[in-house]
């Protein structure tokens, strides 16, 4: 059960949308509790969970006053507004638009096509078919993303400060590797991802470092 006075994240170790919010919570240094929803066992479809999120998805961020927030980008922007130290959006409107465009390209155009429910619908129990499908769409998305980053990146996705875009990039690369995308084809994405993973806020949010990650899946 979630405690009454703390922020609670409903999360699953391998969920990339949850991974984004875990990074943001770490980046802002926000004390919180976690409740683990096992997507592989279908716990997102339980009646109790559906009353928290009718879309049957993680993440959900339950605030101390009991309100529940959904959608990783909305959650992270809420955290950025309420914990303004270490801002995740740059000052200038053009840079802000660039950051949001990268985040939304990942969240709206690449990631949903290889969600668990989509993979099951497309591939059933055929794991090779699921991997082939996900690999195709991520590879195609990364071809465009690599070109976008060639125009915007410094050390990170947009210039030399960490932004929302970086928080969306790292979980997407985790998924890409899981679905056997050849990351050598994407040197800018690969470089930024490797740089970000040297930071504890990013690495400690990774799936293998979550308490609900099964021991055999830890690296
Ligand atoms: N647009 C949502 C996407 C959330 C989402 O896709 N969650 C996935 C895990 S990454 C999920 O809960 N999938 C459950 C399912 O497909 O059954 C967000 O950004 O929060």
From TrEMBL:
<dbReference type="InterPro" id="IPR004045">
    <property type="entry name" value="Glutathione_S-Trfase_N"/>
</dbReference>
<dbReference type="InterPro" id="IPR010987">
    <property type="entry name" value="Glutathione-S-Trfase_C-like"/>
</dbReference>
<dbReference type="GO" id="GO:0004364">
    <property type="term" value="F:glutathione transferase activity"/>
</dbReference>
<keyword id="KW-0413">Isomerase</keyword>
<protein>
    <submittedName>
        <fullName>Maleylacetoacetate isomerase</fullName>
    </submittedName>
</protein>
<dbReference type="InterPro" id="IPR036249">
    <property type="entry name" value="Thioredoxin-like_sf"/>
</dbReference>
<dbReference type="Pfam" id="PF13409">
    <property type="entry name" value="GST_N_2"/>
</dbReference>
<dbReference type="InterPro" id="IPR034333">
    <property type="entry name" value="GST_Zeta_N"/>
</dbReference>
<feature type="domain" description="GST N-terminal">
    <location>
        <begin position="5"/>
        <end position="87"/>
    </location>
</feature>
<dbReference type="InterPro" id="IPR040079">
    <property type="entry name" value="Glutathione_S-Trfase"/>
</dbReference>
<dbReference type="GO" id="GO:0005739">
    <property type="term" value="C:mitochondrion"/>
</dbReference>
<dbReference type="InterPro" id="IPR034330">
    <property type="entry name" value="GST_Zeta_C"/>
</dbReference>
<dbReference type="Pfam" id="PF00043">
    <property type="entry name" value="GST_C"/>
</dbReference>
<dbReference type="GO" id="GO:0006559">
    <property type="term" value="P:L-phenylalanine catabolic process"/>
</dbReference>
<dbReference type="GO" id="GO:0006749">
    <property type="term" value="P:glutathione metabolic process"/>
</dbReference>
<dbReference type="InterPro" id="IPR004046">
    <property type="entry name" value="GST_C"/>
</dbReference>
<dbReference type="GO" id="GO:0016034">
    <property type="term" value="F:maleylacetoacetate isomerase activity"/>
</dbReference>
<dbReference type="InterPro" id="IPR005955">
    <property type="entry name" value="GST_Zeta"/>
</dbReference>
<comment type="similarity">
    <text>Belongs to the GST superfamily. Zeta family.</text>
</comment>
<dbReference type="InterPro" id="IPR036282">
    <property type="entry name" value="Glutathione-S-Trfase_C_sf"/>
</dbReference>
<feature type="domain" description="GST C-terminal">
    <location>
        <begin position="92"/>
        <end position="215"/>
    </location>
</feature>
